[in-house]
Every structure is written in C-alpha cells, then in structure tokens.
C-alpha cells in the first residue's frame, strides 16, 4: 500500500472509531477501508475482535487478509 493510501486508511480508522460519530456516519468510512485494504473484516477488527488494537495494528491486520480459493 502506498503512503498516501496508508495515511487515508489510518484517517478512516480514526474517524470510524470516533465515539462521538453517529453509527450511520461510521459505515461509509468502514466501506472505504474495505475497498482500500481488500479485507471484509475491518468492522470486526475495529470494534469486536480486539478493540484494544491500535489504528496501525488494525490496518496491518486488515492488510494481511488474503482470500483462500477452494
């Protein structure tokens, strides 16, 4: 991922985690993260799987996602 997209992804993660943002405003940010990283599990990484992950750790985990072809 190039530095511009990485910075954009980190900004989207921070904005999606903003507790003051209504839930409806977080979803477009999460959808943008899914497109940038190719990972459909970003929402889980942000809020459910391990909410203590830092923004950088969430991004790194999302970038590790690979589709397994059967």
Keywords:
globular; 70 residues; 4 helices; mainly alpha
Q: Fraction of residues in helices?
A: 55-70%
Shape: globular
Number of helices: 4
Helix/strand-derived category reads mainly alpha
Question: How much of the sequence is in beta strands?
Answer: under 5%
Overall pLDDT level? 88
Helix-strand pattern: HHHH
Unreliable segments (pLDDT under 50, ≥5 consecutive)? Answer: none
Radius of gyration: 12 Å
The span between the termini is: 26 Å
Count of extended strands? 0
**Describe the biggest sheet?**
none
Overall number of domains? 1
What does this structure look like?
- The chain has 70 residues and is an all-alpha fold.
- The chain has helices at residues 3-17, 23-37, 42-47, 55-64.
- The chain has one domain (3-64).
- It contains four helices and no strands.
- It is globular and about 40 Å long.
- The mean pLDDT is 88.
Task: Present the secondary structure layout.
Layout lengths: L2 H15 L5 H15 L4 H6 L7 H10 L6
Brief account:
The chain is mostly helical and 70 residues long. It is 66% helix and 0% strand.
């Amino acid at each position: 991922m190039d530095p511009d997209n990485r910075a954009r992804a980190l900004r989207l993660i921070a904005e999606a985690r903003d507790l003051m943002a209504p839930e409806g405003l977080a979803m477009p940010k999460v959808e943008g993260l899914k497109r940038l990283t190719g990972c459909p599990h970003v929402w889980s990484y942000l809020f459910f799987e391990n909410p203590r992950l830092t923004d950088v750790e969430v991004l790194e985990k999302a970038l590790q996602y690979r589709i397994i072809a059967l």
